[in-house]
Hints:
single chain; alpha/beta; six-stranded mixed beta sheet; 13 helices; 47% helix; binds Fe4 H S5; binds zinc ion
Amino acid sequence: MKCRVCRDPAVIKIERHNANFCATHLQRLCRDQTAKAIKDYEMFGPDDRILVAVSGGKDSLALWDILIELGYEADGLYIGLGIGAAGEYSDESGAYARSFAADRGLRLLEVDLVAEYGYDIPNGSKAAKRAPCSACGLSKRHLFDKAAVDGGYDAVATGHNLDDEAAVLFGNVLRWQTEYLGRQHPVLPARNGFPRKVKPLVRLGEREMAAYCIVGGIDYILDECPMSAGNKHLAYKDALNDIEVMSPGTKQAFYSRFIDHAAHRFVDEDEHGDAVLSDCISCGAPSSNEICAFCALVERATQPVAAPTRRKREKAEHS
Length: 319
Ligand code: Q46
Ligand code: ZN
Ligand code: ZN
């Protein structure tokens, strides 16, 4: 197996390009594909300051590395979510993010949910009666937006890759959730007081991102989030991978052609897109209600869990 570019021994075969790549040319491919996505979708310019949402996983660390290699000014933000037994999954993820930043002299901002807001995702989501990923997504979105606005960043960049985005698109299409289809574009412009959001890795798959980290000596947390079990997107990814084996390139075509030719048709379906917002009376963030969804979540997540009623106790004892 030889590299398509230099004929040295290859480290990866990428079926959808019908080509093999050595370590050097895999790195170049990943950087070129990211640069192409940034340019084609007009994500940001050379003088923009970028805030990278860093989880300690392969995608976000690879993204941060690539942006720095491409010459962008990019800081990271890690949010401690308190996930895992005694928060240990989050502690470990944070350690990878910190050591990546320290080794390269990069600036990593941090927010800790427990220390600063009084709840973690496993317990807070239960108290607020929300699915963990829903409470987690809401918390992360709010805190990334806030950090970007407070820090004067021009865009928030996340490490969503082609597999992630194709799986979300697949799920939205299966159920024809047209209001979500309008928000699948890899660039959401700044509006209503929210910062611009971009996904520069949409031309790269999960395997390439893992290989990019391995050949570049980027250590990342290998375990999936323990709360992701049962997540429908994992099943959608598996289904798309089966199709990809039969027909390499389908995943990329499914996603890119939708974005390039059809996504604009659904923008008006996003009912929140042009809503007139006021300031949350608690935190000042843009909100369609008096209190924003995040502050409402914090309020519910930090409420002491009510003791079970006598009826529930008796039911539990007899079950
Ligand atoms: S971290 Fe959070 Fe993910 Fe874990 S709880 Fe769900 S949303 S799966 S990207
Ligand atoms: Zn090569
Ligand atoms: Zn608020």
